[in-house]
Amino acid sequence: MNRTYRSSLKRSLCMFAPLAAVGIMPGGVSAERMIEEVIVTAQKREQGLIDVPASVSVVGGEMASEAALVDAQDMVQYTPNVKFNSNNSNPVLSIRGFGTPPLARNIEPSVGVVINDVYYGRATFTNDGAFDMERVEVLRGPQGTLFGKNTVSGVLNFTTRAPDTELRGYLNVAAGSLDEKRIEGGLSFPVLSDNVGARLSFRKRERETGNYNTTLDKDLKQEDESFRLRLAWEASDWLALGLDYFQTDSELNGYGLQYQKATPRAAEVYREADPRFEDDVYDGKSSISVDEFNERHSESLTLNATAFFENVGPIPTLEVALIANTAKIRSPFLLDSDFSPVQFSQLGTDGPEGFDQKSLELRFTGDLAAPFGWGNGIDFATGLFAYQSDAAATQLSVIYYDGLDEVLRAGQGGLPAASAPVLVPTLIAADRAASGNPNQDKAITRNISALENTSQSVFAQFTWYLSDRMDLTLGARYGEEDKEGFTGSQSDSQVVAKQIGGQQDFFESYTAKEYDLSPKLAFSWEIWDDVRLFAVASKGTKGGGVSGPLISPIDTTYTKETAVSKEIGIKSFLLNKTLQLNLTAYHVDYEDLQVQAFNGVQFTTVNAAEATGKGFELDFQWLPDWQALTIAGSLGVSDTAYDSYPCAPGTATQTTADNPPQCGTEIPRQDLSGREVPFAPKVSASLYPSLKFPISDQWGMLVGLDILHQGEHYLDIDLDEETFQEATTKVNLRLGLKQLDGGWSVVFNAKNLTGEQSRTIFLDSPRNAGNYVALAEHDEPTYTIDVRYAFGEN
After folding, report:
1. For the chain, what is the total number of helices (H) and then of strands (E)?
2. Which of 57, 108, 262, 755 could disulfide-pair with 79, CB 3.0 to 4.6 Å?
3. Which residues contact 671 (CB under 8 A, 6 or more apart)?
């Protein structure tokens, strides 16, 4: 495919953003009322979605604009078997029930994030690709062959709007409930000549979270602003150069964690500090004594060069791409670690928490003649990839002596309330004597976890077109990775931090060398016109590392996990291309599955032996005879289970006396073999009919109804019944007016009209069994109005 045609195709796709893709993009129809194919880059080259032998869904930019989908959490609700809970620094991202757990501060992702052809090594980069977006492709199953390590569950592949030498752009202004204000825009324009195009885009958003801190009399708010610059230079007929830079800054002035359940003993003490304390997790009221914050700053710079050649030996057309990237995250935070109105403990970063990465990819794509004259030729993608990352997670933990009496009476450490008047002076005196400081008023502990990764890999994938209707894909990636790191804790308190906080001084270094082979085998057969069967087997790997930051040397390191997946499916256009129907069934086996576990004192990353996931995904789009109507939807069914996990963390109320015999007595343990994996809804479904019709020569109307279902699931690895999340079915509605030639549009969106209640994070209260905190989503309906003006694009 020559470059001129490629650029023309991309511009055409921007104009056809409303066309269908795996039942995700809202219906746009030609005069013949047919669903159009969407082009994706799921295999590192442009293909029609029906030609990709894998389970892939696409959310388009126009869909995101019309439905006010401003982050990935909103977008993936329309895709089956995908769950994303957004928070500022540590989002929960899973596909088919397996993914990155919450509060995983120094762990490799299970779902890879790719933005404009660059892999990013932390899930927190996800929303950096979610504005001025052309599309996001959701790839399910291991993607190690082409996307590398740490993609064992899948990939979110974002493509933002490309630079252009024609003047085009948009401006979107929005306001809504929770005092939301949002402005977003994008502009493409020539730079000095017709050979250099630019794209400048931005977004600024602020809103309340719906949570009020009764102790500090403070409404919690979120603010974020993002900026992106893309440049494209056609330096010659055979060479194209590009630059991509983005920056995002965001801030939360409080986490909004609320008590879901407080023991009568704890509630009585907390009401002494704040009479408005309660444990209704859905009332939007927290009682936190610390002035919390969570900030995030990200930057990324990518330089790329693409050369196009013809007739290079046996290769008729060859495209060589060189992609160099550097990126970083800084995310300081402060958290009230007792989650109560008592000023007892807090933890935060000891300086900004950091992650830095550098990557370099040299990729060759092209086509070859059919070997031995068999078939219709071969497409290939092969190359080299180098990656280096430095991650440092720091933690400064403080225990204030003034709060000791209150938290002991509330149940901290499981001690009798009557012991507090005697025990507290004794502990404080002993701590001061040990430190030699008679005026010491707090215990300070510093924890750190750091890991440096250096990896190199070589990859190749070949698709052999056996006939006009059959093709076979073979691929593999081989990689080597060197890891060096350490984890440790040190406190100035010899008594309080250890007796009350469970801290132990320690330091452990870590080195490892990992080898990774990720093969892939796929077969695709178009059995009838526009009806294609496929089967694929693939393997993925996720790297090991050090847990932390930790306050004690329990479960300090973890090893790599692997996943082997097998899929069969069908992709089809039916009824004269008025119905698109796709169905995939899968089975995936995990070995040494990495999970985030709370052991009563701290969060650690551990390997959970073996697990299995199986299920199916279905999505569709239908264009009925009524020209205005489009009906789309999806259904995902996921059955996950630990095959073997005999020494899983126990619940907060269990004791070591109940431990399985082989698990020791260091901390409470339980056998979860055969039980389900947390954060894995059994069913996810969506149904979203829409109407688009003209009401005058210049204006059209759109009406959309979204029904979004998430099945029941657990929110913590110990499967405590307190963590059980009931199924939810949210209903959204949108009404809008749009000029038929682009130009102006006004869209009203109402979300969660059913007032569904759901939680995204659940925690046991540290060292105070029977008390639980959680982070609940705002459960009242919300409304926004978006006013948009666009020229030259939708």
Report:
1. 8, 47
2. 57
3. 645, 646, 647, 648, 660
Distance in angstroms (rounded) separating the CA atoms of residues 505 and 507: 7
Quick one: average pLDDT of 357-382?
Answer: 94
Q: Which residue has the tokens 């309660």?
A: 278
Distance from C-alpha of 465 to C-alpha of 367, rounded to nearest angstrom? 11
3 state DSSP class of 408:
helix
**What SS3 class is residue 530?**
coil
> For residue range 679-726, what is the model confidence (pLDDT) as tens digits?
999 999 999 999 999 999 999 999 999 999 999 999 988 999 999 999
Q: Please say whether the dihedral angle defined by the alpha carbons of residues 714, 618, 116 and 30, taken in this order, is positive or negative.
A: negative
Take residue 290 and report the two structure tokens written for it: 């610390």
Residue 610: per-residue pLDDT = 92
Pairing state between β 285-286 and 193-213: parallel
- Its sign, for the CA torsion 11, 16, 21, 26, is positive
pLDDT level of residue 766 (50, 70, 90 thresholds): low
Which alpha helices (H) appear in 118-263, and where do they start and end?
Answer: 144-147
Tokens in use for 153? 């569950």
Answer yes or no: is pLDDT of 9 > 60: no
Q: How confident is the model at residue 352 (pLDDT cuts 50, 70, 90)?
A: low
The angle formed by the CA atoms of residues 138, 107 and 94, to the nearest 5 degrees, is 30
At 22, list the tokens: 């795996």
User: pLDDT of 66-80, one tens digit each?
Assistant: 888 888 888 988 999
Three-state SS at 123: helix
| pLDDT higher than threshold 80 for residue 414 | no
Torsion, Cα 659 664 668 672, to 10 degrees, reads -60
- The 3-state DSSP class for residue 411 equals coil
**Closest residue by Cα to residue 99 from 120, 89, 113, 88:** 113
CB burial readout 6-34, b (16+ within 10 A) else e = ebeebbebbebbbbbbbbbbbbbbeeeeb
Tell me the three state secondary structure of residue 162. Answer: coil
Q: How many CB atoms lie within 10 A of CB 435?
A: 16
Look up residue 395 and give its two tokens. 């933690």
Residue tagged 């003034």 (tokens): 402
Tokens in use for 689? 């009919």
Task: Dump pLDDT digits (tens) for 264-283.
Answer: 999 999 999 999 999 999 99
Q: Secondary structure of the chain: what % helix, strand, coil (to 5)?
A: 10, 55, 35
For 178-232, the pLDDT digits (tens) are: 999 999 999 999 998 889 999 999 999 999 999 999 999 999 999 999 999 999 9
- What mean pLDDT value characterizes the chain? 90
- Identify the burial level of 347 via C-beta atoms within 10 angstroms of its C-beta, where 0-12 means exposed, 13-18 middle and 19 or more buried: buried
Q: Count of CB atoms within 10 A of residue 661's CB? A: 6
For 518-564, write each residue's pLDDT tens digit: 999 999 999 999 999 999 999 999 999 998 889 999 889 999 999 99
Element containing residue 747 per DSSP (H, E): strand 743-751
Rg (CA), the chain: 27
